[in-house]
Amino acid sequence: MKENYPDAKLFANYQKAVGKGLLKIMAKMGISTLRSYKGAQIADAIGLSKDVVDMCFTGIASPLGGLGFHQIALRTLEVHDRGFSVDGQVSSLYGALVSEGQYHWRQGEDAEKYMNDPMVIAKLQEAARTNSRAAYGSFAALHNNLVKASTLRGQWDFKPPR
Questions:
Q1: Per-residue pLDDT tens for 1-25?
Q2: Please, which residues have CB within 8 angstroms of residue 42's CB and are 6 or more apart in sequence?
């Protein structure tokens, strides 16, 4: 049965839920008070150009650079065009929007590499259940290869001392 709540009650419920969610995230990050979180700049902007970061995320580091406003606009229009036809009518979203596999593991050569590859998880579980050094070795090898393929630190090499 659907109940009708006043807007003030709905807003209060939403505000409470968001507050609890933020507190949970902050606790996982080791932040105990809102004051220590505000302006802490605990993240880097990865994939955004300096002009975007300077205008929208003042003071945040952007070590790699990336998309500027023009590229972001083009990408936004491209995604919009996949969902709406030329005459402005909504097309079938399930038929028109391509799943890029950014949040769901995809199989195949062209699939993006993720740290939570099913085989890595299976080897980790096997190693934990059987206390097997061989299974752990397999897990470690697969994991290390995925680190090289999917993280920045995995793509760095140490320079030998001169």
A1: 457 888 889 999 999 999 888 888 8
A2: 29, 31
